[in-house]
Design goal:
The structure holds two protein chains of two kinds.
Chain A (H helix, E strand, L loop, with lengths): L6 H5 L4 H22 L4 E8 L11 E8 L6 H11 L19 E4 L2 E4 L13 E5 L6 E3 L2 E2 L2 H9 L18 H8 L9 H5 L1 H5 L6 H11 L6 H12 L12 H5 L6 H19 L1
Parallel strand pairs in A: 1-5
Antiparallel strand pairs in A: 1-2, 3-4, 3-5, 6-7
Helix pairs in contact in A: 4-8, 8-9, 8-11, 9-11
Chain B lengths: L1 E8 L3 H12 L4 E5 L15 E2 L8 H11 L6 H20 L14 E2 L9 E2 L5 H16 L2 E4 L1 E8 L10 E8 L5 E12 L20 H9 L3 E2 L4 E7 L10 H4 L3 E3 L6 H4 L12 H16 L6 E4 L5 H7 L1 H11 L8 E10 L2 E3 L11 E3 L4 E2 L12 H16 L18 E2 L27 H21 L6 H15 L3 E2 L1 H18 L13 H25 L8 E2 L7 H4 L1 E8 L2 E8 L17
Parallel strand pairs in B: 1-2, 1-9, 2-6, 9-16, 15-17, 19-20
Antiparallel strand pairs in B: 3-5, 4-5, 7-8, 8-9, 10-15, 10-21, 11-14, 12-13, 13-14, 18-22, 21-22
Classes of the chains: A alpha+beta, B alpha/beta.
The structure holds flavin-adenine dinucleotide, iron/sulfur cluster and FE2/S2 (inorganic) cluster (FES).
FE2/S2 (inorganic) cluster (FES) binds next to loops of chain A.
GO molecular function, one term (chain B): succinate dehydrogenase (quinone) activity
Keywords (chain B): Electron transport, FAD, Flavoprotein, Membrane, Oxidoreductase, Transport
InterPro entries (chain B): FAD-dep_OxRdtase_2_FAD-bd (IPR003953), FAD/NAD-bd_sf (IPR036188), FRD_SDH_FAD_BS (IPR003952), Fum_R/Succ_DH_flav-like_C_sf (IPR037099), Fum_Rdtase/Succ_DH_flav-like_C (IPR015939), SdhA/FrdA/AprA (IPR030664), Succ_DH/fumarate_Rdtase_cat_sf (IPR027477)
Chain lengths: 280, 609
């Protein structure tokens, strides 16, 4: 029994795949030798270093690595190159390389970004890339920060679907309602917004933009029912909730998923006012 | 020592679903995961999740499509379970709040996908996996299930009876990545492995850096066979520089592929005259590489995928995510330019052998999700069939481990007394090198579970201390990168005998170098150097089994293409490739595929496009 196959492949006598790989390796060699020869073809990567356990890293410092520049190289690529070729103790979180896991939010050339989503050529000063851990969080080692506080804030808004009545079978949800909550559901828990927020930096109990956005996601989900909605409003309205926000927009600016955080917080403030009006 | 009834290793879609099910069964359950749950790779899934929900569709049709898609290497009992259980599980996700895309009448949307006879792929935008992962994690939080996050599991605590079928699993060994603390975890009822894919065996993959196949390698060394490892799905549209996936949705909406001559090669060279760009993944991947190999590729590497003609409005409406990916990861504006694409590793059809309850041949050890092979995908997975696998079998494994009686399984596991053995004729010697530690507990009897776990902790402690105390040697990054390169060069879409043998030599070589591996970072705090060194060992074991399977299977089935063997050989090869860890030597044997379903037998037919 024969299955579909490109038979030109079987007939060719030379081994095109091997040839192709050879050509590719030649190109790679050329590229490699040219980068080591000319200094302008490297990126200067300045990385924050700190390890509480190792004597000469207990004092925080910056290390500089010269990483060969490649077309389309991201900050995460550069970090991985530095780690795999120069210093295997260089420590940072990363996993998906495609802006969905949220583990490599870093402070890059002065702002919060995902390392994997940031092309070096797109940075303002792309010759020197300065990489630091997220500000306003405790550093565990090098670029790794303590995320516990962020997770705690997220969990304090009861971030789970919790309908007033247990649904039976498929629930309906209007397209409009799904559209309404769509942006709020895109959060990848990277923590960039929290790190950029002055208020959160000054008030440890402030829920912060990500947690409020999570609350928004459930508050406006029509499937949960009104009773639950009221309870959610109470969480949002608490002393360290929405009212702390001073609409500085820094969270909205840094969010890698383009979630209109400030707008969402404002909308919840309006909801809070409306619901209070009912009682007065 | 930590203690729970059920321990779930890994917190992607499969692990989270298993934990919820075990919890609902009343067990004290904990998740142990090297990444925080929301960082798991399930979050990257784009396209959707299959379930026969609507009138006009049926679980029988879903099962049939899946068997055919598998090129008749799926086991019917597993495939039928998947198709039967998927609808209620998808509705369960909806009930837990998952923000599915909706129809005008408010019902969950469904769309067509490759190889499906009905539009049965439910989805949430082009971020289905993200929403599925977050929805499940939310439910875990709601139930207060304990999560040990950033704990790396290094090994299983299994007794060491000679016959793996008689062994039992009593827990795991893990270390806290943040502090370096090594600890034993005892499981009273069961350990469920849900550690996900193994894309890091290749250097060009859609998978996360964390997908190093840890669970598969751990189970293998503990005595569970690896099944159908040679069946790797290569996705035809990944971005050349990173491997980031460009969803099948682009071709689904009408995106076209062309070569340097500007030809729409799928049609013009007749790779798939009816379906063209929408033929199944293996066919398109082979066509693209043939174009490149024959000199019609861009920079000898990739072809172009063009969606400009779809118009800005349609692209923004349905493929917005793709614009971001092309822009962020290739620096290409998909509205203005075509996107470069090439095939890349995407999914492992094979893995840890389990039955339809998720149970392996070792008592108390389960596996679910991409690390497992309950055998629903066979030789080729249909798009949208991995996510239902996570929730269907995750749920079953969770409740079974927690004590629910699911009846007698129809799929057998473990090596039978007289299996069909294959003597692999290869020029490379295989398997262990030097003082490779045994997988099991090193001589302790099973009576006291605690001692089994303690012994396993001790052994791991020795292994890690040895790595950290060594002052110089080889670094894992070098070995890992060599393996990834040889696998990509030789065990890719096109496979040839000489190249497969060469890879076995390279792996052997890498094993020898691994003996001299050391960890330069001496800190116990967040030591990723150490973690990656342990992972690299797993990559080695997996790469070897995969290549052996590929070399032995001299036929062309599903995603497995052999230059010298251009046909599917049903007489000889309607069987699963099994690799067992036999005293440190990989042993190859076979188990017949089960084509008999509940009420029908799935007769192999030719796949054409
Ligand atoms: C880009 C992409 C798109 C996809 N799109 C689709 C789609 O549209 N439809 C579909 O059906 N399928 C799709 N798939 C396939 C599907 O998403 C995966 O097969 C599935 O998500 C795997 O889930 P999992 O739970 O098995 O593993 P993962 O989600 O990868 O989770 C693995 C977990 O194991 C943990 N872990 C691993 N090793 C260890 C260890 N040693 N110790 C402790 N913890 C460990 C990790 O921390 C993680 O939590 C896609 C895959 C990719 C890569
Ligand atoms: S809201 Fe945006 S910036 Fe904040 S955690 Fe979520 S994805 Fe990150
Ligand atoms: S590595 Fe996952 S978001 Fe960057």
């Amino acid at each position: 029994m024969s299955t579909q196959s490109p038979d030109t492949q079987t007939e060719s006598e030379t081994d095109p795949q091997a040839e192709r790989l050879e050509r590719k390796e030649e190109r790679a060699d050329e590229a490699a030798s040219s980068t080591t020869e000319t200094a302008e073809d490297t990126v200067e990567l300045k990385v924050f270093r700190y390890d509480p356990e190792i004597a000469d890293k207990q004092e925080p410092r910056f290390d500089t690595f010269h990483v060969p520049r490649k077309q389309g190289m991201t900050v995460l690529d550069a970090l991985m190159h530095a780690r795999d070729h120069f210093d295997s103790s260089l420590t940072f979180r990363h996993s998906c390389r495609q802006a969905v896991c949220g583990s490599d939010a870093l402070f890059i050339n002065g702002s919060q970004r995902l390392g994997c989503q940031t092309q070096i050529q797109d940075l303002n000063n792309s010759d020197t890339v300065r990489v630091e851990p997220l500000p306003h969080a405790d550093v565990v080692k090098d670029l790794v920060v303590e995320m516990e506080h962020f997770y705690d804030q997220m969990e304090s808004v009861e971030p789970y679907f919790d309908p007033s009545e247990e649904p039976e079978g498929e629930q309906l949800q209007s397209r409009e309602n799904r559209e309404k909550i769509k942006m709020s559901t895109r959060c990848i828990w990277c923590g960039a917004c929290m790190s950029s927020c002055n208020i959160a930096a000054g008030d440890n109990e402030y829920l912060g933009p990500a947690a409020i956005n999570k609350a928004y996601r459930f508050y406006f989900d029509e499937r949960e029912g009104e009773e639950r909605q009221q309870e959610r409003l109470e969480i949002i309205e608490q002393e360290h909730g929405v009212w702390r926000c001073q609409t500085q927009f820094s969270c909205t600016t840094v969010c890698p998923k383009d979630i209109p955080l400030t707008e969402h917080i404002q909308e919840l403030k309006r909801e809070a006012v409306k619901s209070n009006l009912k009682f007065w | 020592m930590y203690e729970h009834d059920v321990l779930v290793v890994g917190a992607g879609g499969a692990g989270l679903r298993a934990a919820i099910a075990a919890h609902e069964e009343g067990a004290d359950v904990a998740l142990v995961t090297k990444l925080h749950p929301v960082r798991s790779h399930t979050g990257a899934a784009e396209g959707g999740i299959n379930a026969a929900l609507r009138n006009g569709d049926s679980w029988q049709d879903h099962a049939y499509d899946t068997m055919k898609g598998s090129d008749y290497l799926g086991d019917a009992p597993a495939v039928e379970t998947l198709a039967q259980d998927a609808p209620e599980n998808v509705i369960q996700l909806e009930n837990w709040g998952m923000p599915f895309s909706r129809e005008d009448d408010g019902r969950v949307s469904q769309r067509p996908f490759g190889g499906l006879s009905f539009p049965r792929t439910t989805y949430a935008g082009a971020e289905t996996g993200h929403h599925l992962l977050h929805t499940l994690y939310e439910q875990v939080v709601k139930r207060g299930i304990e999560v040990y996050d950033e704990w790396y599991v290094t090994n299983l605590a299994v007794t060491d009876e000679d016959d793996p079928n008689e062994r039992s699993c009593h827990g795991i060994v893990g270390y806290d990545v943040q502090t370096g603390e090594l600890a034993g975890f005892r499981a009273n009822d069961g350990v469920i492995l849900a550690t996900g894919g193994m894309g890091q065996v290749f250097d060009h993959t859609t998978n996360a850096v964390a997908n190093t196949g840890d669970g598969v390698a751990m189970a293998y060394r503990a005595g569970v066979p690896m099944e159908d490892m040679e069946f790797i799905q290569f996705h035809p549209t990944t971005l050349p520089s990173t491997g980031v996936l460009i969803s099948e949705g682009v071709r689904g909406e009408g995106g076209i592929l062309y070569n340097t001559e500007g030809e729409r090669f799928m049609f013009e060279y007749g790779y798939a005259t009816n379906d063209g760009e929408l033929a199944s993944r293996d066919v398109v991947a082979r066509a693209e590489l043939t174009e490149v190999n024959e000199g019609r590729g861009f920079e000898d590497e990739y072809v172009m995928l063009d969606m400009r003609h779809l118009g800005e409005e349609r692209i923004l409406d349905r493929l917005e995510n793709i614009l971001h990916l092309a822009e962020d990861f290739e620096g290409v504006d998909g509205l203005e330019e075509p996107m470069p694409v090439k095939p890349g590793h995407h999914y492992a059809m094979g893995g840890i052998e389990t039955d339809e309850h998720g149970q392996t041949c070792i008592d108390g050890l389960y596996a679910v999700g991409e690390c497992a092979c309950v055998s629903v995908h066979g030789g080729n997975r249909l798009g949208g069939n991995a996510l239902p696998e996570l929730i269907v079998f995750g749920k079953r494994a969770g409740s079974h481990a927690a004590g629910r009686d699911l009846g007698e399984p129809k799929i057998e596991t473990g090596k039978p007394a007289n299996p069909e053995l294959e003597d692999l004729d290869t020029t490379a010697s295989l398997g262990t090198v030097g003082d490779d530690e045994a997988a099991a507990d090193g001589g302790l009897a099973a009576e006291d579970p605690e001692t089994v776990v303690d012994a396993a902790v001790e052994r791991e402690d020795e292994r890690i201390t040895r790595l950290l105390e060594k002052d110089e040697g080889t670094q894992h990054a070098e070995i890992r990168s060599d393996i990834q390169k040889t696998m990509t060069a030789n065990v890719n879409v096109f496979r040839e005998e000489d190249a497969l043998e060469e890879t076995l030599h390279d792996i052997r070589d890498a094993r020898e170098r691994y003996e001299d591996v050391y960890v330069a970072d001496k800190s116990r705090t967040f030591n990723t150097d150490l973690q990656h060194t342990l992972e690299t060992r797993n990559i080695l074991d997996i790469a070897e089994a995969l290549t052996m399977g590929a070399l032995a299977r001299d036929e062309f089935r599903g995603a497995h293409w052999r230059k010298e063997h251009q046909e599917r050989k049903d007489d000889e090869w309607l069987k699963h490739t099994m690799v067992s860890w036999n005293d440190g030597q990989p042993e190859l044997w076979y188990r017949p595929v089960i084509l008999d379903g509940e009420n029908k037998t799935y007769e192999p037919k030719e796949r054409s496009y």
